[in-house]
Amino acid sequence: MANQLLEELLSGVEIQRHHKVAVLFGASGLIGNCCLRRLLVHQAYEKVISIGRSPLKASHPKLIHYEVDLSQPDNYRHLMRGDDLFICLGTTMKKAGTREAFYEVDHDLVFNIAKTGSLQGMNQLLFVSSIGADNRSVIYYLKVKGELEANVRRLPYWGVHIMRPSVLLGNREDQRPAEQIAGRLAKGLQRFSGSILADIAPIDADDVAKAMVQSAQSLKQGTHIYHGSEIVKLARMYNQ
């Protein structure tokens, strides 16, 4: 028992120290790009390793970007040397085209990256899921998200932080009409802090990114799930 407590204490010290290394997947996406910007200016991180299929326009003394094929973990395993793993990957049913293709990205790809990070000894995992994620859901999108969450929980990370935002707001090339309408409703719904209305309110992608980076500094062992109102509260705590 004493050894276990000592091990947990030492893990906490390792996680809270500065000069950490963040490993980020999905930096070219909506949340991922925001997350990259927040990580690069955060004092806790001395290096940010970005791994993805596409080149990045960003440039920063802390940033190292690797452009690799993500289809096989062996292609990026050796690059995952760090403390906190941030995964901001995902697609839509429309883009994927089939259920199988959607599952390959939103479950298999994310899970393989998360599993590889755990095998590489990374301490914390932070990733984006969805409001309503449930592996028993009759809605396929939510069922896949729920299965991913359930499987990731079994990995031996010191801490796992799962973001469950509603509709995302932000500048993207394929801006969807529903998101434009949602943006007009977001601020009003977020006034109902702590209620179900606040949890279903559309949320700015940058707030999700801030919440991810902030939760990585919280020293909370185990698995933690953050809904809309909790994401907004964490984002407001971000002060870098």
Topology summary:
Blueprint lengths: L1 H15 L3 E6 L4 H12 L3 E8 L10 E5 L16 E4 L5 H4 L2 H21 L4 E5 L11 H13 L6 E5 L4 E2 L7 H13 L6 H5 L2 E2 H11 L6 E5 L1 H10 L3
Parallel strand pairs: 1-2, 1-4, 2-3, 4-5, 5-6, 6-9, 7-8
Helix pairs in contact: 2-8, 4-5, 8-9
Can you give keywords for this protein?
240 residues, alpha/beta, Rossmann fold, 7-stranded parallel sheet, two-stranded parallel ribbon, 9 helices, 18% strand
Describe this structure in words.
Pfam families: NAD_binding_10. This is NAD(P)H-binding protein. InterPro entries: NAD(P)-bd_dom, NAD(P)-bd_dom_sf. Residues 26-168 form the NAD(P)-binding domain. The strands form 2 sheets. Strands 3-2-1-4-5-6-9 form a 7-stranded parallel sheet, with helices on both faces. The chain is α/β, with parallel strands linked by helices and 240 residues long. Helices cover 43% and strands 18% of the residues. The chain is built from 9 helices and 9 strands. It has a single domain (19-237), classed as NAD(P)-binding Rossmann-like Domain (Rossmann fold, 3-Layer(aba) Sandwich).
Total domain count: 1
List low-confidence stretches.
Answer: none
Through-space gap between termini? 38 Å
Major β-sheet, in short? 7 strands, parallel
Q: Specify the overall morphology.
A: globular
Number of helices: 9
Gyration radius (Cα, Å) is: 17 Å
Q: What letter string, H or E per element, gives the SSE order?
A: HEHEEEHHEHEEHHEHEH
Helix/strand-derived category reads: alpha/beta
Nearest-integer average pLDDT: 87
- Helical fraction equals 40-55%
Instruction: Determine and state the CATH class.
Output: Alpha Beta
CATH homology superfamily: NAD(P)-binding Rossmann-like Domain
Quaternary state reads: single chain
In total, how many beta strands?
9
Might you state the CATH topology name? Rossmann fold
What is the CATH architecture term? Answer: 3-Layer(aba) Sandwich
Strands side by side in the biggest sheet: 3-2-1-4-5-6-9
